[in-house]
């Protein structure tokens, strides 16, 4: 079963990151060396997801900034994010702000996303990036959630604080650095990277709202969204949506089709026409993600299974064995053995 070609199709428009680094005294030649390609125009920078994360991790060390993500977010405005930023800034209220962000975020980035839901009287803003946990993903998570807050505060023109905050990673001391940005109700080593607000805040009007300008920008954004949908294979788009929705209730065919702006019937017909079906591509995604997590992270089998939508680790183990012919534990051991053997062979040359 072939892995998804994530490296070539997922990435982010990272002009904001390059601009910050230049401001901090990092040269374009240094940045180019890290991402592996020459950046001649800092106003047009698109990085593949692994190059983006690699640059983030390197930048934190280069600038001696253990909280680089939050440091960068302090300077983030809606305009930082181009068309997407203008869409959310000119929305009438927080509810539409979030709708615009969820619908149009693919014009800025893929392989990572914001999602929103109401749960227990609270409104959750979740950030996901489709890569195993690392120092680089920690920086990305902290930047993304802090930037959401700062852009929201600017648009509202007043304080806007979450009721609580959760991070999957551990706290990078000092704790006060987090409290200065997110408030005092912060939990680490959790299942999700999320901000939680009182649901009533959704009706809060934005001070920056401009409905006429919103219509103009939305028309332009729709054309960009259409180009994305035309240029990318529908099956690969469906796999992307599945991959970042497995631990939620959004990985069903109806939800995926809705995210792709087609009907479930149209999606199923397209899959059949290409010799596959929804169950098969969902399983392909699960296997690809599971293999990657087993190879590249130290996460437990239970944690990996949970990320892939399995409430019981035994269910994940059975599914993995059915789809691959081996168990997660054995696959990880064989991958580690191969990696060790390769390292030993390389060191003797």
How does the SSE layout of this entry go?
Layout: H1 6-9, E1 11-13, H2 15-23, H3 28-35, E2 46-48, H4 49-62, H5 68-73, H6 82-89, H7 94-104, E3 112-119, E4 122-129, H8 135-156, E5 164-166, H9 175-182, E6 186-187, E7 194-198, H10 211-231, H11 234-243, H12 253-259, H13 264-273, H14 278-296, H15 301-307, H16 313-324, H17 328-347
Parallel strand pairs: 5-6
Antiparallel strand pairs: 1-2, 3-4, 4-7, 5-7
Architecture overview:
With 349 residues, this protein is α+β, with helices and mostly antiparallel strands. The chain has two domains: 6-203, H-NOX domain (Alpha-Beta Complex), CATH 3.90.1520; 294-347, Arc Repressor Mutant, subunit A (Orthogonal Bundle), CATH 1.10.10. It is built from 17 helices and seven strands. The protein has helices at 6-9, 15-23, 28-35, 49-62, 68-73, 82-89, 94-104, 135-156, 175-182, 211-231, 234-243, 253-259, 264-273, 278-296, 301-307, 313-324, 328-347, and strands at residues 11-13, 46-48, 112-119, 122-129, 164-166, 186-187, 194-198. Helix 9 links the parallel strand 5 (164-166) and strand 6 (186-187). Helix 4 (49-62) packs across helix 8, helix 6 runs antiparallel to helix 7 and helix 6 runs antiparallel to helix 10. The chain is globular.
